[in-house]
């Protein structure tokens, strides 16, 4: 970009970002679906970059207003510091792909022919100039994160994205054949327990009817999963908003016993990828029959039946995902705190105790 070009960065709710997304139409539509459900504490919007009125770049941004920082810590530290909840609150601009179905790609979108790195830099500068913001947080793949390796940014590896590759796999038996003997043995044990309990899995296409009995059960499961989560998601009040969930375009796999739901997972079908966006369980019932394990396998079956090449399961937050995965995509968090004191405290104490912290980020690691 030359110095003479007139660039304008701003906030917009529904820019024509489809022109930037290419094959990501379904992911952009998913983010836009949640925009009207923004809350007072979590506001979704697009940071956009235009050249003489033409859209050339955009990024999905979550404005987390006065979010309690202690909730970001691992559970034991979260409990210890709960008394500080009203004192340690910060406003953060979060740029990631949580509402883009946890895509393991850069959240920064650039128009065809534009320099992606320059677009990203211009949008970062815009975010850093925003008033009444304490922190800018960016989560992206390793190969993008080098752009924040200096200039006062702190970096660490966060939970990787779990993926299951299905290239040249045309049946579930072929998928199983690629697993280790131990994993195949575990699958047989988990599947037999599920069948012996008389459980079944049904595929339901969203949106769901607002007054359906199944919707009430799934909302209950979402809240149960949130309560048990070891990693706090400050945007969950938007992501599991009952109205947003009910009207979301998604494919749901629902496990039940005697027609009573005991768990589910939900996917967005984007191009050749089946992307998990939700999940929840009746933990008392589901653990006895390995419902979660069988739901993941059902997701793989469904993807294969649709001729898809990849299943993604979001951040690696449990061992069951690890066992099913064929690939873990490293993700790097880059954080810039405007306050020097905040920066020093976060760097030396806070980050390693966060639930989303995975490992230090070192060059060549």
Question: Could you explain how this protein is built, in words?
Answer:
The protein is α+β, with helices and mostly antiparallel strands and 365 residues long. It has helices spanning 18-21, 25-34, 75-80, 116-129, 142-145, 172-177, 181-196, 213-228, 236-239, 242-247, 283-289, 291-305, 319-324, 340-350; strands spanning 7-12, 42-51, 54-68, 89-95, 109-110, 135-141, 154-165, 199-205, 251-257, 260-270, 273-281, 310-315, 327-337, 357-360. Strands 1, 2, 3, 4, 5, 6, 7, 8, 9, 10, 11, 12, 13 and 14 form a 14-stranded mixed beta sheet that branches. Strand 2 (42-51) and strand 3 form a beta hairpin. The longest helix is centred in the middle third of the chain and has 16 residues, at 181-196. It is globular.
Q: Give the structural class.
A: alpha+beta
Total number of helices: 14
Helix content: 25-40%
Unreliable stretches, pLDDT < 50, 5 or more residues? none
State the major sheet. Answer: 14 strands, mixed
Mean pLDDT: 92
Shape: globular
Strand/helix succession: EHHEEHEEHEHEHHEHHHEEEHHEHEHE
Strand content: 25-35%
Instruction: Give the N-terminus to C-terminus distance in angstroms.
Output: 32 Å
The whole-angstrom Rg is 21 Å
Count every beta strand, where a strand is a DSSP E run of 2 or more residues.
Answer: 14
